[in-house]
TrEMBL record:
Its cofactor is Mg(2+). PANTHER family: D-GALACTONATE DEHYDRATASE-RELATED (PTHR48080), ENOLASE SUPERFAMILY MEMBER DDB_G0284701 (PTHR48080:SF3). It comes from Blastomonas aquatica. Its EC number is 5.1.1.-. Belongs to the mandelate racemase/muconate lactonizing enzyme family. The keyword Transmembrane helix does not apply. This is Dipeptide epimerase. It is an enzyme of class 5 (isomerase). Binds 1 Mg(2+) ion per subunit. Keywords: Isomerase, Magnesium, Metal-binding.
Length: 323
């Protein structure tokens, strides 16, 4: 019988600050949990989806409540008894980890995924004035990151991207509007950004306003983030977007994320596997799913002042499993 061993809130400092259209973060709280079969222990971590009203404390409470129920603590049962989100993700990850330890089978085999290899990951350039973003992009490129993800807010964004292109002339660029382009002419903006070498626009409009994208002739593929959490969302957004950003904290774990990835690809959508700010423990299952993705954005641990011991390696613009 599998039971909850421990659950707690942990805090990690950000290296500098992480700035998007919704505000700045200098630290991130995560929910950490362990499950056990009485001998072995599996670990998991989730980062609350703050724009959905989640907090680490609420997630910890949700995990304790689920564990106290007279139901089997299995990944399949979690899908029936918990809402998607960081709490379910942390428990789901811990159960996968425990199964790996109980069976001696690596996670990629259990999940039916390719054997993991190092992957090029995007590196986030926080929202700032054009000159600062140019300097940050130049620094990231000097560290070997070939793919940069630029945070935007709907004001002076073209100037920001132009500045970044000057700072990192050879970098591939992804734009993350974080729902801030509701008043932007997307057709005109994407035409200009395509000239600057941008290859993808993430979440231009607010979740719930996807109908505003119907009929828009974007020069660049649009990627759903806040608009798509679980597999059932695909039918609703498939005609407005050409890609979907799969985050395990949104989906509520790798178990649901696998379903989401399959549903997206069945509708001809490309996939990105992304993350919230988190430690390497938090993105461990996502790294395995990312082996099947078109874009990878798993720089969460690289943005922290200090990661967990034995975390992922970030070298030459790639993320690799610990040695």
């Amino acid at each position: 019988m599998i039971t909850l061993k421990t659950v707690r809130v942990e805090r990690f400092a950000v290296d500098g600050s992480f700035i998007i259209s919704r505000g700045a973060k200098t630290e991130v709280d995560v929910v950490y949990c362990e499950v056990t079969d009485g001998t072995l222990v599996g670990r998991g971590e989730g980062t609350p989806i703050y724009y959905e009203g989640e907090t680490a404390e609420l997630c910890a409470d949700a995990i304790e409540t689920r564990a106290s129920q007279n139901r089997p603590l299995t990944r399949e049962d979690l899908l029936q008894t918990m809402m998607e989100g960081a709490a379910r993700n942390a428990l789901d990850a811990a159960l996968w980890d425990l199964e790996v330890r109980m069976t001696g089978t690596p996670l990629w085999k259990l999940a039916g995924l390719p054997e993991p290899e190092p992957l090029v990951t995007a590196y986030t350039i926080s929202l700032n004035d054009p000159a600062t973003m140019q300097a940050d992009a130049k620094s990231a490129a000097a560290k070997g990151y070939p793919l940069l993800k630029l945070k935007m807010d709907g004001e002076a964004d073209l100037e920001r991207v132009t500045a970044v292109r000057l700072g990192a002339p050879d970098a591939r660029l992804i734009i993350d509007a974080n729902e801030a382009w509701g008043d932007i002419d997307i057709e005109e903006m994407t035409s200009e950004l395509k000239i600057l070498g941008v290859e993808l626009i993430e979440q231009p409009v607010a979740a719930g306003l996807e109908d505003n994208l119907e009929g828009v002739m974007s020069s660049l593929p649009l990627c759903a983030d806040e608009s798509c959490h679980v597999a059932e969302d695909i039918e609703r957004i498939a005609s407005r977007f050409q890609a979907v950003n799969i985050k395990l904290d949104k989906a509520g774990g790798l178990t649901e994320a696998l379903r989401l990835s399959e549903a997206a690809k069945a509708r001809g959508l490309k996939t990105m596997v992304g993350c919230m700010l988190s430690s390497s423990l938090g993105i461990h299952p996502a790294f395995h799913l990312a082996q099947t993705a078109d874009w990878v954005d798993l720089d969460g641990p690289a943005l922290l002042a200090d990661d967990r011991i034995g975390g992922f390696r970030f070298e030459g613009g790639k993320i690799s499993l610990p040695r």
